[in-house]
Amino acid sequence: MTTRDDTKTTKTRLDALRVEIERRNPAQPEFHQAVHEVLDTLAPVLAARPEYAEPGLIERLCEPERQVIFRVPWQDDKGHVHVNRGFRVEFNSALGPYKGGLRFHPSVNLGIIKFLGFEQIFKNALTGLGIGGGKGGSDFDPHGRSDAEIMRFCQSFMTELYRHIGEHTDVPAGDIGVGGREIGYLFGQYRRITNRWEAGVLTGKGAGWGGSAIRPEATGYGSVLFAAAMLRERGEGLEGQTAVVSGSGNVAIYTVEKLLALGANPLTCSDSSGYVVDDKGIDVDLLKQVKEVERGRISDYAERRGASARFVPGGRVWDVPGDVALPSATQNELDENDAATLVRNGVKAVAEGANMPTTPEAVHLFQRAGVAFGPGKAANAGGVAVSALEMAQNHARTAWSPARVEEELAHIMGDIHTTCHETAERYGASGDYVTGANIAGFERVADAMLAQGVI
Ligand code: NDP
After folding, report:
1. How confident is residue 11, by pLDDT bands cut at 50, 70 and 90?
2. Closest atom, ligand 1, to C-alpha of 271
3. Per-residue pLDDT at 319
4. Sign (positive/negative) of CA torsion 353, 358, 364, 368?
5. Nearest residue by C-alpha to atom 31 in ligand 1
6. How does pLDDT run across 47-65, given as a tens digit for each residue?
7. Ligand 1 in contact with 177 (CB < 6 A)?
8. Does residue 429 sit in helix, strand or coil?
9. At 431, is the secondary structure helix, strand, or coil?
10. DSSP class of 290
C-alpha cells in the first residue's frame, strides 16, 4: 500500500535527479525537457513498486550506454570541402538492438539527438517488439543539395558509422532529412565497406531490396489510427472531422492520406517557410508530386492547386480551426498560445506525429481543457513498429504483403492505445495518455534492466 509519504519521498528524489541531470548535461535543453516530462509522471509507479526505486535504476536509464561523435568531411559539386558532425547515441539495449532514426538538419546537436534517443526507449518498449532505443544524425543541411552531393555526404557518414551498427547491434532508419534516397546511399556504402548483404542493418529500404511494404506510410497512418482510437474512447469517430496537420514531409503526407481514407478532412500542411490552408481539403496526390517527386516547397502546392488553397508565409498553422490537430513537423512547434487558440476553436483531440512537437505548457493546457492528447511516444510509434517488422522480414528473407503489414500496424496501434489507457487508469490518471505511455514504457524497460543486472 502506497502512502502519501512514499510518493512525497519519491518526488523529492526525482527532483534531485532532475537537478543532477541538468548539471551533468549542460546546454542540452531538449534533452532536459524530454527527461523531465518522463520523470514528472513516474512518482506513482516508483512509490507503488519498490523494486523500481532501487538506487541507480533511473540514473542508468537517463545515461546513454554509448555516444559516438564523428567528423563527416565531404565535397560539394564545385569541389569545396565541407566538414559536418555526425552523431549516434546508443541509449538503451535492454529490450533489443538500439533502434531509431537518423536526422539530417542544421539544428542537430548532441542534446537533440539525446532527447530523441531517450524518447525512443519508451516508444520502442510500447510497441511490444524487441527493440532498444537509439538515435543519430548530423548537422548537415540537405536542402538545395544535388543528388550527387547527398550521395557523397551519405557515403562519408557511413564510412564512420558502419563500425558502430549491425543487425544485432544498432539499426538506424530515417527521420527529418533522411528518407528512401538517403537510406539507399547509406545501405550501399555499408554493403561496400563490409562486403555483407546484411539487410537488417537499416530500415526504410526500398521495396525491391529488403524494404517493408507500408514503412513509408507507417508513422503517419499510425498517428491517425491513434487519434481515431482516442476519439472512439469518447464515443466519436474521425469521419467528417476537420484536421489541422503541420509539416509536409514523410509523416505529414501519410497522415493526410490516412485522414482522407477514414473520411476526415485535412485542411492544412506546412514547412519552415509557412503553411497552406486548402478549403477543399488537401489533395494528397498533388502534395506527393510537389514534395516527394519534385522536392519542392509547400508554397508550390498552393500555386498549383488553384482557388481553394492559399499559402500563408511565416504564419502559425494552429490558427486554422479544426476538430483534430496532428503536429507532424518538429519539436516544440506548438506552444501555449497555439494550444489556447486550438482550444478556443474547439479542438477535440491532438495526436503527435512528430517527436515532442508540443511544449510542456501546451500539453498541460490541452489536458486541463479536456482535450484528448496522444504523446509522440505512443501516437507516432507506428513507424518504428513497422521498422521492427521490416527487420523480422529481413531475418526470414521474406516480404509480407501490404495488407498483412497494414493489419499488423493497426493491431499494434490499437494495443498501444489500450496499454496507455489502462496504465493511466491503473495509476489514478484516467484519460492521461502521457502518464499512461511513460509508465507503461518504463515498466517494460525497467523490468528488463533489473533482470539483467547492473550494467
Ligand atoms: P521530413 O524531413 O520528411 O519532413 C519534415 C517536415 O517538417 C518538413 O515539412 C520540414 O520543413 C518541417 N520542419 C523540419 N524542421 C522544421 C523546423 N525547425 N521548423 C519548421 N518546420 C520544420 O521528416 P519526417 O516527416 O520524417 O519527420 C517529422 C517529425 O516526425 C520529426 O519530429 C520526426 O522526428 C518525427 N518522426 C518521424 C518518423 C518517421 O518514420 N519518419 C517516426 C517517428 C517520428 P522544411 O522542409 O522547410 O524544413
Report:
1. confident
2. 11
3. 98
4. negative
5. 354
6. 999 999 888 999 999 999 9
7. yes
8. coil
9. coil
10. I
Query: What's the CA-to-centroid distance between 49 and ligand 1, angstroms?
Result: 38
Residue 2 pLDDT: 56
Q: Which atom of ligand 1 is nearest to the CA of 383?
A: 40
pLDDT per residue over 268-317, tens digit each?
999 999 999 999 999 999 999 999 999 999 999 999 999 999 999 999 99
Ligand 1 atom, smallest distance to 357 CA: 32
Write the CA distances from 402 to 213, 219, 274, 289, 386, integer angstroms. Answer: 5, 15, 34, 22, 11
With a 6 A CB cut-off, is 379 part of the ligand 1 pocket? no
Give me the chain's average pLDDT, please.
97
Residue 350, classified by CB atoms within 10 Å of its CB into exposed (0-12), middle (13-18) or buried (19+), is buried
Bridge partners of 92, per DSSP, are 133
* 430 vs 433: CA distance, rounded Å: 8
pTM of the model: 0.97
| Structure-block grid coordinates of residue 430 | 484516467
Report d(CA 282, CA 258) in Å as an integer: 12
Question: 271 C-alpha vs ligand 1 centroid, how far in Å?
Answer: 9
Which residues participate in catalysis according to the annotation? 135
State whether residue 227 is helix, strand or coil.
helix
Measured from the CA of 174, which atom of ligand 1 is nearest? 41
Residue 139 burial (CB count, 10 A): 17
| Cα separations in angstroms, 370 against 41, 128, 364 | 18, 29, 10
Candidate from 108, 135, 145, 271 with most ligand 1 atoms within 8 A of CB, to mutate:
271
Task: Using alpha carbons only, give the angle 314, 319, 325 rounded to the nearest 5 degrees.
Answer: 110
Map grid coordinates 509508465 to a residue.
Answer: 439
254 closest CA partner among 204, 302, 202, 304: 204
Does the beta carbon of 418 lie inside 6 Å of ligand 1? no
Query: Which cell numbers hold the place of 149?
Result: 552531393
For residue 1, pLDDT over 90 is answered with no
